[in-house]
Amino acid sequence: xxxxxxRDREKFLEGMRYTASAVNIVTTDGSAGKAGVTVSxxxxxxxxxxxxxxxxxxxxxxxxxxxxxENKVFGVSILSQKQSFIADTFAGRIQAEGNDKFTCTDWIIxxxxxxxxxxxxxxxxxxxxxxxxxxSHHIFIGGVQNTGFxxxxxxxxxxxxxxxxxxxxxxxxxxxxxxxxxxxxxxIRPFNTKDTYPEQNLNNDxxxxxxxxxxxxxLRGQVSQDLETRxxxxxxxxxxxxxxxxxxxxxxxxxxxxxLDHVCRIVVYLTDIRYREEVYQEMGTWLKxxxxxxxxxxxxxxxxxxxxxxxxxxxxxxxx
Length: 320
Ligand SMILES: Cc1cc2nc3c(=O)[nH]c(=O)nc-3n(C[C@H](O)[C@H](O)[C@H](O)COP(=O)(O)O)c2cc1C
Fold this sequence. Notes:
This protein is an alpha+beta fold.
């Protein structure tokens, strides 16, 4: 077998880092059993012909690959920006309960019997029309027989080894534009953490300073707690704790007449530096295009032992 020159391989992977793709869960079920895997290599092939077609590339050693070959059906669930935990579970980055990846979310079963992620952005059910092995991966071409949609959500995007969501350029997310006088707050020297910490897997839009125009709103340090019942949620899961914390922050800001777009300063408290990437990645999806200034600290403990992250926010209610 001819193997790729190692330098070519590295350059190829480095180049591909800069592409952006949707994140999908490819699933199957049938005589070979149920299996699923996180896949960014999913592409439409043709909308015309007997049926529309798409392709997915799955590593030949993945149990999902063997199962699709035998089951001859697969499902593609395109994830929304709130579903990165499903991608991490099916990529083996988060330990699944009882080693069963399917316990991380709810499913619907399609007409072909394949499980599809409930509330995914889009789902396709496919019969395998063709498959071929190229290098380490099998390419499966699927004839699409059922398509489901969910509106009002943004896709989860994977680029530069980090998750994000799309931002419209015309909405003024360009840092140069943000320094101008025509925006509500002046974000000074905006940057993204993937440039300032290239060795870390981060993607946070931040600024060195913010000149805010409006009435200030100070929030108590928020944690993964139900604000109505005071129940602590998601013990030992830093991603879900961050998500609940950001949900609380969003809700409180809206109650104050502000919103996440007007966050000017954040302070992040972690109980372990190892949570940094996951916490910042999740927080980054909520504050994409906002560019607050940020301080991060590791503390020996928070007020309750189950809390792993606390986030403090200062925002403004913008002047008319
Ligand atoms: C964002 C993302 C995209 C991925 N895309 C693919 C892909 O297109 N094809 C693939 O075979 N693996 C892909 N992977 C890797 C697999 O999900 C990962 O190797 C997984 O652990 C395989 O699990 P399995 O061995 O149980 O099948 C991707 C992982 C992530 C996090």
